[in-house]
Amino acid sequence: xxxxxxxxxxxxxxxxxxxxxxxxxxxxxxxxxxxxxxxxxxxxxxxxxxxxxxxxxxxxxxxxxxxxxxxxxxxxxxxxxxxxxxxxxxxxxxxxxxxxxxxxxxxxxxxxxxxxxxxxxxxxxxxxxxxxxxxxxxxxxxxxxxxxxxxxxxxxxxxxxxxxxxxxxxxxxxxxxxxxxxxxxxxxxxxxxxxxxxxxxxxxxxxxxxxxxxxxxxxxxxxxxxxxxxxxxxxxxxxxxxxxxxxxxxxxxxxxxxxxxxxxxxxxxxxxxxxxxxxxxxxxxxxxxxxxxxxxxxxxxxxxxxxxxxx
Length: 311
Prior knowledge:
By secondary structure, the chain is α/β, with parallel strands linked by helices. The protein has helices at 3-9, 24-38, 53-69, 85-97, 127-139, 166-179, 192-204, 221-230, 238-246, 251-271, 286-304, and strands spanning 13-18, 44-47, 74-79, 102-106, 150-155, 183-188, 211-215, 276-280. It has an eight-stranded parallel beta barrel with strand order 1-2-3-4-5-6-7-8, surrounded by six helices.
């Protein structure tokens, strides 16, 4: 389903993110996770994308498998790094032929196995270049849907690590939206004040597309450390750190604290009129299922309420 149709039908979406498995065992685990989450009828699921050639193929294979064997709407990530225009056009054509209706356009990180990678040969330096190219593909009529691909872009409520000037940061985001982005999905955060302030600043900048909040529950101390590394600049509120540190030798209690914190975040976000919640699952369903089950009545009411008018 095209993302515009999803937002027109649902006042508050909820969705999940996965990364493509690299082994047969990991593939089986992920597929079980997908089946567990499919019963929740999420608005969509997204699949991450690496800079290396093998990772690209894994993403494509997983997205096509989701499209062909489940009732889920899959949104693949697409990044600028290590790509020529012809390669991106080929990827888009393959997705269009497979019935994929949306993509998430990202700047992306250089491949970890190629230190010092020189990006001067990349056709796309920034996400806005990728958004512009996707819209060019859409205008060509190569997609079965006359609207072409729906396009999402990323944002950072706590600030983009590469753009310390917060005014310029919003200028860059608005440029991506003006180039044709249909929605925004945020990086993970742990303090809703950061999200609500970010949303208000977007309104002041005349950014009017739906903004989805990215949530990742803490399930272990190791996972918390990984979040700090993956989401550069992620801020862990003192109240959360205090609870985790108090039970640092009790893994089950740390998991409970993380799930309850994320649940309360989601409750407040939905009550505050968020257009969607996107769960970063790390390919596991347990924590996400527990959060969803606690939120189910509120999510159902929010999803079935009348969406705000399109602007």
